[in-house]
Amino acid sequence: MTATQHVHRARLYKLASLAFDRPDEALEEALLSGAFDEQLLESAAALGNDELHEHAAAVVEESPTDSDAIDELYSNWAALFGFEGGGDIDQYQIEYSPGTLVTSTDVLADIAGFYKAFDLSMDEGNHERVDHLCIQLEFVSHLALQTAYLEESGDETGVEVVTNAQGDFLEDHLGRWTGRYRETIEDETDVAFYQALAALVDTLVDDDVDRFDVEPKEFKETPPSPLEGLHDDDGDFRCGTCGSTPSPSTGEMPMGDRDGPY
Known about the structure:
Helix content is 60%, strand content 2%. It contains 9 helices and 2 strands, in the order H-H-H-H-H-H-E-H-H-H-E.
C-alpha cells in the first residue's frame, strides 16, 4: 500500500468520525459545500475495494445537501444517539462487550494506553469515554496519516511500529464491535444515512483487518452494560478530537483538522 493510500484511509476514518459525531458547523459546511461527498467517494475509490466504494456511494446518496435536511439529520442524531433525545443506540465499545466491571475497566485502560503511547489525549472539556466510536475512528485515522509520513520518510522501523499498533488496536478493540454496531443501526433505525455510514465503517474496518492480517474476536451479542450509569448524563457528549502534537506532514494532505476545512 502506498503512502497516498494511507492518507485516503486516514481521511475515510476522519470523515466517518465526523459524520457519526453530533452534527456541528464543520459537518454542515462539509455537506453543504459537497466536500464531504466528494472526498468520501475519492478516498473510497483510491483503496480499490469495490464494496467499500459502493457503501461510500450509498452514504453520498443519503447525505443531506440543504439546511432543512441537515436540521433533520441533527434531530435524527439526537433521537438515536443523543442523551437529550433519549437515544438508546450506544456508541461505546464497552456497551457491546461481555465482561464484568473489572474487565471493562481493564479494557478502557488498555484503550487509553494506546492513545498515550502516541502522545494523544482527550481534549480538555471532552466528557466522552475513551471507547467512544468517534474517538477510536480518529485514533486509527491518526495512525494511518502517521504511516503515510513514515513511508515517505523511508523510516522502516517507524512504519513497522505504527503498522503493528494499527493491527493490535483493530484486533483488540475497533474490529471487535463495528459489525455489532452496524447490526444495531440496521435493526433499530430506518435513517438511511446512518445505516449506510455504519456499513461503510464496518467494511472499512474489515478491509483493514485483512490488510493487517489480524483476527479480532467479534462480539456477537450485546449484554447488559457493566458501566451503565457511570458516565455523566449532564455532560457534553460531543465527541471531540484527541488532543495531540500534530504529526509531521509530507506536504499538503487532502484532509484537515476535524474542526477545520478539508
